[in-house]
Design a protein that fits this description.
Oligomer: single chain
Number of helices: 11
Order of helices and strands: EEEHEHEHEHEEHEEEHEHEHEHEEEEHH
Length: about 325
């Protein structure tokens, strides 16, 4: 099984374990079996709005094994970034929710809500209840010289209704008003991966995610292997046209891939499929499962693209075989 090669799973949540309030089919059972086989589970999320305890309770409600200690958030990573740069006990203006305030307090810092308190830093994370007034206070404090740290830069986040504005979109309010770019703590930047490694003591981690520009790029930046699952925002076309930093080590339909032998992919062949480059286009021959066809196609597409990326028109003949 693929899981047997790793001691720790660094798992994204939205689009991997659940979508909205619903578990993705097969996810809870796969994680339970992975834990039974000795893997450490770490739920690593760019969502800074909720506390680890609340996230763990949500996961348990869906049937997934989780405790608060299994959850690593961008709020925790952001709080560590701030704590390493300001004196202990410093005031920090928190532009976010309870998860971010708790993470700041746990680092021995003092959460505040107004620029008038002369905070040493401003830390921003997503919260549904985030107000204009709090964003304005953050902008004022940054303009006054406060360190600016953002939990993550995701411009969108998945939902059953489609992609919604994420924290990266909200960050632009303070960054534009203050004329200062933040230090980002979440994926794909290094701080959240560093936080995950510190908390899990992982030696052979596997990053599991659904986004190329956060999960997979984060794994690439950290020099660790990754599994992309197709239960979130990434499509087969996205994978085939990915640039090098967005190319996963493994591709699977969902988390059940962890409990299956990963097939050998060699010279564009996987399962009953063979991919080839002909007349400026990627083509697939044979038959079998969709995911084996995608694996075969990726092998050839990435080899042809090298350090660049293919255009979607060039991979359309292969995509047509997979639909």
């Amino acid at each position: 099984m693929l899981i047997d090669a790793f001691d720790t799973l660094l798992l994204d949540l939205d689009g991997v374990v659940y979508l909205g309030r619903q578990a993705i089919p097969g996810a809870p059972e796969s994680l339970e079996e992975a834990r039974r086989r000795g893997a450490r589970l770490a739920y690593v999320t760019n969502n800074a709005s909720r506390t680890p305890a609340a996230i763990a309770a949500h996961l348990r409600g869906l049937g997934a094994p989780a405790t608060a200690d299994d959850v690593v958030t961008s709020a925790q990573a952001a709080a560590r970034v701030v704590a390493e740069r300001v004196p202990p006990g410093s005031k920090v203006l928190v532009v976010g929710g309870s998860g971010l305030r708790l993470a700041v307090r746990d680092r021995g810092l003092r959460p505040v809500s107004t620029a008038a308190e002369s905070p040493a830093a401003v830390v921003q994370g997503f919260a549904y209840e985030l107000s204009y007034g709090l964003l304005a206070e953050g902008a004022l404090a940054v303009r006054q010289g406060a360190l600016f740290v953002a939990s993550n830069g995701d411009t969108t986040m998945p939902s059953p209704r489609g992609e919604l504005p994420g924290n990266g979109s909200l960050v632009r309010v303070i960054a534009t008003a203050a004329g200062v770019e933040p230090i980002y703590a979440g994926k794909p930047d290094p701080p959240l991966h560093r936080e995950s490694m510190i908390r899990t003591n992982a030696r052979r981690p596997l990053v599991v995610g659904d986004r190329l520009d956060t999960d997979i790029e984060g794994a690439t930046n950290a020099g660790v292997e990754s599994l992309l699952v197709l239960t979130g925002v990434t499509t087969p076309a996205d994978v085939l046209t990915a640039e090098p930093r967005h190319r996963p080590t493994y591709v699977g339909e969902d988390l059940r891939t962890l409990l299956q032998p990963y097939p050998e992919v060699r010279d564009g062949a996987c399962g009953g499929w063979r991919a080839r480059w002909q007349d400026g286009a990627l083509r697939l021959e044979g038959e079998g499962s969709r995911i084996d066809g995608l694996r075969a196609a990726c092998d050839v597409a990435w080899a042809v693209a090298g350090e660049g990326r293919l255009e979607e028109d060039a991979v359309k003949p292969a995509l047509d075989r997979l639909t």
